[in-house]
Amino acid sequence: MRLQLAKSNREVNLAILNYSSSFSLSDSFLFTLLYNPFVFIALYPTATFPTQLQQAIIAVEHLITTGVHPSNLHLVGDSAGGQLILSLASHILHPLQIHPDISSPNDIPKQLRHLKLSAPIRGFYLMSPWVCLSSTSPSILSNASLEVFSTATITGYGVNVLSRIKDPSASMPYVEPANAPPGWFDGLGHVVERVLMSAGDGELFRDDILRFSKVLEAVPGDDVKPKSRKGKAKRLPELDFRFVLHGGVHNDPFVDFMVKLPESQLGGMTKVVVEWLKDGVDPPVSSSHEY
Question: Does the pTM of the predicted model rise above 0.70?
Answer without folding.
Answer: yes
